Amino acid sequence: MHYLFEPGLFSSGPVKTALLVGAVVAITSGVIGVFTVLRGQSFAGHSLADVATTGGSGAFLIGVNQFWGFLAAGVAAAAVMEGIGVQRRRGRDVATGVVLGAALGAAALFLYLGTLKTATTGASFTVLFGSIFVISPDTVPALIASGVVALLVVAVLARVLLLTSVSPDLARARGVNVRLVGIAYLAALAVSVSLAAVAIGAVLSTALLIGPSATALRITKTPARAMAVSALAGLVATWLGIVLAYDSYYWPPHGRGWPVSFFVVALVLIGYLLSYVRPRTRRAPRSPHEGVECSPA
Amino acid sequence: MFSGLMMNTWITASIVAVIAGMTGFFAVLRGQTFAAHAIPNGAFAGAAGASLLGINVIWGLLVFATGGALAIGALGGEGRDRRSRNDVVTALALVLMLGLGALFISLGSQYAEETYADLFGEVFGISQGEVLPIAGLGIVAAAAIAVAFRPLMLTSALPEVAEARGVSTRTADLYFLVVMALATSMTVPVVGALLMFSLMIGPAAAARSVTARPGTALALSVVIALATVWLSIALSYQTNWPLGFFVGTIGAAFYLVGQAARAVAPRRAAVPDRAIAG
Asked: Is there a contact between A31 and A153 (Cβ–Cβ < 8 Å)?
């Protein structure tokens, strides 16, 4: 035990915040990610994280609170993606790509103007990779609130969402406004993903959105069970990643920690690959957690 | 604006635009937009790894770009679940490469400026020595696409027919992804990972919404990419704002114009579009 949990781990303030935020992000992403994977919108999920951070840096430039920047950018991008995208999946991907391209261009401009103001270029690094250990405690309530809002939207829409994900034609025949559902869902995705991206970086937010849900969907039969498994797998990967990153300060090169995002991504990936090797028996869906827990030892 | 050093910029940027216009056309047609985003970004992480090891950056770019392409191609699905499987596999390959990138950057002592250049490019100040390899690569990429033009078109437009004729969609996917990886690994240090992506998608999507003929659309995609780059360089030179901003917004603007043109003349586009989109 001592080798896994370095002394002082649980008395450190930043670690406590990281564990809490990690849990919120992992659970929200795990549940919403199941729909993202079912609907084939992984690209949109990743793009919204990038776009939202662009909005955040824009808000910083004009001196508005960053929260409004990334919320506005994320939700606006979600609306544009669904608005210009044709219903076919291929067209949707192209629309996502165009929005992302424009947003990345804007990010380049904001970062450039930002360097004129503050003479640092660290911003581009933070936007992509973030760090879970430097979250300020004031961000935590907003993160929890946005996670709850996104989960509520998805919970209310769950049945309709599943129907439109699996068979849009059937949903349309039953009088469901497929496009409206799509926008509502993307907006919820934008809220959860963008706050996660700002707190822990776009890389980690995408990893937690897609990895655990794809794993869960491979090994479970029903969507409800997939959501539970996915949230749990995300949680395990995140917490273990945080612990390992904390330990890594004692690894070579000395005195320089390895990033949390690396560990979480590695654990999430191991879980996903293990879902391939699992024999096709009707065992209870537990293997990914065992795999995730055992792997780094 | 057209002095000695700037000439290198114009030439290199034009070659990059031609490569991006061509590969982007197929990326859009084949629905591999996400891969077009993931591969340049992964290559960026490879560059960070190479500079950590102290070897030439090009090796890092090559290994990560082709490695990512092979992983996406090999683990990707086939048949009905091809798209959703590809989506997930691409996302996971992307986060793995970026996660490794985060590790390399935090272990290394690289300055943030270099990271910034790999992401957003450093198109002003290209030396003569950098132009030739990019020109060579442009020719290789163009040849690779020309050689496989028919199978690539067929598997993009009518996958079922292609399979019936013995052309594997999956092999075509893999082939195209590797071509895209090669193109990317040369262009990323010059134009940046983010710019390469914008340049691949915007012009190609705009071209596709205007014309349905594959040959015309491919040519138009290259022309729009060239126009985007030239306009962006001129504007960036005048305003001193970053090139990536202009490329991203002008590419998106072309797409919007294309969509508007299509909306004005919907009848002409309706039938042939189905013929290539399948």
From this structure: no
